[in-house]
Every structure is written in structure tokens, then in C-alpha cells.
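Pilot study result, target chain (182 residues):
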Amino acid sequence: MSYRKSLYEALEPDTLLDDFMQSMRIVLKGYRVVYEPGALATETASANVKEELKRKIRICAGGWQSMLRLKPAFNVFRRPLVAFAFISHRVLRWSLAAFALPLLFVLNLFLLDQPLFILLFVAQAAFYLAAMAGWYYENKGIRWKLLYIPYYFFIMNLAVFLGLKRYLAGEQSALWERAKRA
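Predicted structure:
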């Protein structure tokens, strides 16, 4: 990330997602963030799901922090496109989506008198069973894509809850431990 020196703003020392916060504060001042197709960045994958979970928990804790610190980004009247992008691409992913999954599973139990909801419940249960099987095989050093995808999806949504817990408890340091890479 690069930006004009004049746009730099010192962030709070405990900021968890400094690159995101800096970019958003620049956007909220009325400037644009522009994609540069010639810029190159590389990042290797985490060594394993446990290392990726560690990374995602930190990111989710920072997501919760940024939602509280970037309140002007919610103002749909001042900057409607910024608000839409922030809410749809960040807020919903860092909050509502992960909370909706267990809620939908439980609510589905109350609708099992209707054939469609029986089918949906069976599909949800099969997905979570596949995630559990993916976890089991991953821990045995076997990665089956059919089981790994539900497992990874579950873990990434679990990170939202663990990130919230860590943020609320004040346990996430701005100095984070780097995840081991593959």
C-alpha cells in the first residue's frame, strides 16, 4: 500500500488492522483508493489450518475493532458507495454471516414439519458432518477436497466468534504472532 505523505494519519497504538484502517480513513476523508494492476505482492499459504485459524482470529478481532472505530463508514447518506462496500464486504462477513449459520441450523429444527425444511436440515447436517470428517482427516495428514472445503469454511466462520471473544477480552495484541507458512 502506498499513499500521499500528507494523507498519513497516526493510528491508535493498539490498532489491529493498520493497513485497512489507514486506507479507510483516507477514503473517509474523500480520497480514492485505486487498484494498481502493475503492483505485485506474494504471500504463501499458512502451513496448516491451525496456523490459518490463528491468522483469521487476529483479522476478525481487528474487524470488530474497525467496525467500532470506523463509524462514519456506515453513513449511507454521506458516502453511499463506501458505506455499501464497507457493510457488504466487511461488516456482514465479520459479523452477521457467521452468526446466521448456527441460528439457521437451530431455527430449521422448528420447521421440520415441512418437507423443504427437512431437506434443508439434512443438507446442513451433512455439511457439518463433512466439516467434522474434514477435521478428522486433516489431523491425520490426509486432505480430501470434498471434506476439506466444508472444514475450512467452518473454521473461517469459527474465527469470527473467537476473534470477537479475543477482542472483547482485550486479548489481541497489536503485535501479532506471524503464522507459520507452507
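One observation from the pilot: The helical segments are 18-28, 49-69, 80-109, 115-139, 145-168. A full batch analysis is planned for the follow-on phase.
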